[in-house]
Amino acid sequence: MGYFDFQFGGPSGNYGSSDNENRPKKPKVRPVIKTVLMVVVVFLLGIVLISSTYTVKETEQALVTTFGKLTNVTSAGFHFKLPWPIQSVIKEEVNRTQKITIGYREENPNENIISESKMITGDYNIVNVDFFLEWKISDGYKYVYSSDNPEKILKMIAQASARSVISSKTVDEVLTTGKPVIQAEIKDKIQEKLAHYDIGVQVLSVKIQDSEPPTEDIKMAIKEVETAKQEKETAINKALAYANKTLPDAQSKADKLLREAESYKTARINEAKGQVAKFNAMYDEYSKFKDITKTRMYLETIEDILPGVTVYIDTTGTGDINKMLPLKEFVAGGADQ
Amino acid sequence: MKDKKLRKWVIFVCIAGLLLIAIWQSTYIVKENEYAYVTQFQKYVKTEDTAGLKFRVPFVQKVEKLPKYSMMYDIPPSEVLTADKKSIVIDNFTVWRIDDPYLFKKTVTSVAEMNSRIDAVVYSVVKNTFGEMQQSDIINGNTNSIDNVNDEITRQVNEQLKGYGVSTISVEIKRTDLPEANEEAVYQRMISERNQMAEKYRADGNYEAQKKINETDKEVKILLSEAEAKAEQIKGEGEQGYMQVLQEAYGTPERAEFYKFVRSLETLKTTIKGDKTLILGPDNYIVKVLIGQE
Q: Would you tell me which residues 109-138 of chain B have a C-beta closer than 8 angstroms to some C-beta of chain A?
């Protein structure tokens, strides 16, 4: 209090002395001091009043300390406390979800921070992985008191965890299919480490923004692999198309062969049946007059075949050609020709 | 009158001031995250490690605050050699805290000085640890290997820093990088690996396509030859049926003989026809008829 008096006394004294010449000295000093004192008292009361109240936002939690010792924790609203220097308040945004970006900055998402994003995979490749984590304060007391910079420690842990997880994956997992698993594993890893550090923060989620090959040449080479994959599929599909066309063709050909054979079989049996029917009919006739029929059939055949045929008859039965009669002339019509 | 009143005021103010100084000198506040290190004429008296308003002997005892919280020290990256003479850039950080303020003040004076000691200790531990490992022990697709390295380094660093009244919560590698020259080699290898993969896909595609085609051709051949065999069999059955039917008809010797006769005539019809010469013996029926013997 005395300290304040002196400070405010200084300028007021000067003010008084500047008015010395025009006005009488004594009646003037007392009111001036009184005014100054009033001002000081009002000022101090103001400070006391202001430092006796505080408001806490919805997102916040307030830690109230009495002579440095934590005595109360309050949530959103208007609150009273004992004035400074007895009680003071530390407000922390315990309910707000906060974000840490690694490998890029929120202000300029396209610019890569290589020192943060470059990682070595388990199969000894290099990739650039950008990610962010969402976190919040899980314990306001620990967040404030247990470390010098929880957010920075969290960022370090996140980097260490990401590298540790990425170093257990293949480059293909990192660049393409493995992202969800990797995110989950990084989150678990961070959570596990946070349990050890115990700095009052918790991780809500880890998301990989970008995982890219480090150079353009490698990007091209990877694209080339994709193209080759497509080419492989195309070649296989073409072969399948060939199979799909050729097999039915062959089946129809095979079917044709079978049907033809079957028809041949039936035809052949029918042919036999026909012959048998014919033979049976002939045999029926034959069995009635065996000799006559036989001779008739023989003669009918001879009639049928002998015209046009030159016949020699060997009456001697010796086979001597000189004794043979040409029969041709005897045959009707045959002599003229 | 007025001077007396003024003097009273001055005395009051002076007393109030002195009282304040006395209070200020005999009390101090320890926060939740602080240690208070109390000395008397430069000599250690006690450490206060609980928060709140504390008392001391005015003007005689001095209080210094030390952090009770964990501190993170981000160590600059350093290049180390593995046992197989590969160099790796290691970037790590240390989280530590003061456990024993007395020992700490006795051996190191400030946090900044402590950091430089941590720097030296961590560097030598990291260098020794990696110097005994193969590069493949570190980069090998196994998450646990890095964790184990971290744990081992932390243990050793902690061992060495214990004497300073400090405990090491952890030393972690947040980054392992290859020196730039090696990186270029890795890039080249990545490209060649990809090229080889692309070639393999293409070759695999051709192989599988050809395999499918061959398979198809084989199936077609088998299908057709089976069909042919089956067809021949069916045809044979036809022949068999043909003969069976005929056999039934020519079952008796008389029928067989008649059949022979008829069939012979048919053969004559088809073979002796047209411009041919025939020599007939005298016993031939038609010759007999001709001669008049019949």
A: none
Residue B71: list chain A partners with CB under 8 A. 147-148
Mark yes or no for CB contact A254/B227 under 8 Å: yes
10 Å Cβ neighbour count for B23? 10
A257/B contact by beta carbon, under 8 A: yes
One domain, residues B134 and B45: no
DSSP of A243-298, one letter per residue?
A: HHHHHHHHHHHHHHHHHHHHHHHHHHHHHHHHHHHHHHHHHHHHHHSHHHHHHHHH
Q: Is A30 near chain B, with CB under 8 Å?
A: yes
Which residue bears the tokens 């002076």? B14
Q: In terms of residue numbers, what domain contains B255?
A: 205-274
pLDDT digits (tens, 9 = 90+) for A296-337: 888 888 888 877 777 777 766 665 655 555 555 554 444 333
Residue A128, beta-bridge partner list = A118, A212
Does ipTM come in above 0.95? Answer: no
With CB atoms and an 8 Å threshold, state whether B176 touches A268: no
Residue B72 has its nearest CB partner, among A147, A251, A298, at: A147
Mutate to test the interface with A, among B63, B169, B191 (most CBs of A within 10 A): B191
Same domain, B102 and B165: yes
| A125: CB partners within 8 A, 6+ apart | A170, A171, B186, B190, B193
B6-16 tens-digit pLDDT: 888 889 989 99
CATH classification at residue A165: 3.30.479.30
Domain assignment of residue B171, yes or no: yes
pLDDT value of position A224: 92
A chain contacts of residue B201, beta-carbon cutoff 8 Å: 225, 228-229, 231-232
Question: Locate tokens 């690996």: which residue?
Answer: B193
Q: How many domains does chain B have?
A: 3
- Dist CA B219 CA A255 (whole Å): 15
Residue type, A217: D
CA A238, A244, A249, A254 dihedral sign is positive
pLDDT in tens, B34-58: 999 999 988 898 998 888 888 988 8
Tokens of B88: 């790796």
Q: Which of residues 44-73 of A touch B (CB under 8 A)?
A: 65-70
Say whether pTM exceeds 0.90. no
A120 and A201 co-located in one domain: yes
CB–CB of B67/A148 below 8 Å?
yes
Range of the domain at A128: 98-214
For residues A143 and A72, state if they share a domain: no
Q: Domain boundary at A92, A127, A152, which?
A: A92
Number of domains within chain A:
4
- Is any Cβ of chain A less than 8 angstroms from the Cβ of B32? yes
Residue A7 banded pLDDT, cuts 50, 70, 90: very low
A49/A81 Cα distance (integer angstroms): 10
